[in-house]
From TrEMBL:
Taxon lineage: Bacteria, Pseudomonadati, Acidobacteriota, Blastocatellia, Blastocatellales
Keyword field contains Cell inner membrane: no
Residue stretches spanning the membrane: 12-35, 55-74, 168-189
GO cellular component, one term: plasma membrane
Name used for this protein in its record: Uncharacterized membrane-associated protein
Keywords: Membrane, Transmembrane, Transmembrane helix
Keyword Acetylation: no
Species of origin: Pyrinomonas methylaliphatogenes
Protein origin, superkingdom: Bacteria
Pfam families attached to this UniProt entry: VTT_dom (PF09335)
Residue span, VTT domain: 48-156
Length: 201
């Protein structure tokens, strides 16, 4: 039964890819709105960019905007559902993510949007909805994070063609963790700099 549904979702993903820009947009929207499709927007973007490299930035824009809209839909659903939306996650995970959002606001979602699976990105979106994180700040954070991810995929597709998916799967976990770590270090440095600044004057 599960395998049958997986095959159907894979067929849907392949079919949507044939619609080009609109297909990439829809795949990203559905994937971000908690309807995972095998390969999703990542595979579609790599495939289409390999075939039509001149459209690279448009595919990135379509995937990014679809992902942002899908996440905002998931946030809105979670806002209406309240704490019931979090029941399928462990209490320890829920509390950890809530504390991160309370402390770092949309910046925590930005970092989460960069990190590779199995990092629980959707838990951040659902928590943002339950605890009423500002939708505009959430959209900006997701947009910047996802754009970085899709730009990297497009770059690999242009330079490595069909091998891009394999290279992305192999190296993105390291790149994503490294990029997130660098961003966090820059934030810490900025925070320490602004704390020390009054004492220098």
């Amino acid at each position: 039964m599960i395998l049958g549904w997986a095959n159907r979702f894979a067929q849907v993903a392949s079919y949507l890819t044939t619609f080009g820009l609109f297909g990439v947009f829809l795949l990203a929207l559905l994937d971000s709105a908690a309807i995972p499709l095998p390969g999703g927007p990542d595979a579609a973007l790599i495939l289409l960019t390999t075939a039509y490299p001149r459209w690279f930035l448009l595919y990135v824009l379509a995937a990014t905007s679809g992902s942002v809209l899908g996440c905002l839909i998931l946030q809105a659903i979670s806002r209406r559902a309240g704490r019931r939306a979090l029941e399928r996650f462990s209490s320890e995970r829920r509390e950890r993510v809530r504390q991160l959002i309370d402390r770092y606001d949309a910046f925590s979602v930005f970092v989460a949007s960069i990190l590779p699976p199995p990092f629980p990105f959707k838990l951040f979106i659902i928590t943002a909805g339950v605890f009423h994180l500002n939708a505009f700040r959430l959209a900006v954070a997701i947009g910047v994070g996802r754009a970085l991810r899709y730009l990297l995929e497009g770059y690999l597709a242009i330079h490595y063609g069909a091998r891009a998916g394999e290279l992305f799967a192999r190296y993105y976990p390291t790149i994503g963790m490294g990029l997130a770590g660098l961003i966090i270090l820059l934030l810490i440095f900025r925070h320490l700099f602004w704390r020390a600044r009054p004492s220098l004057s």
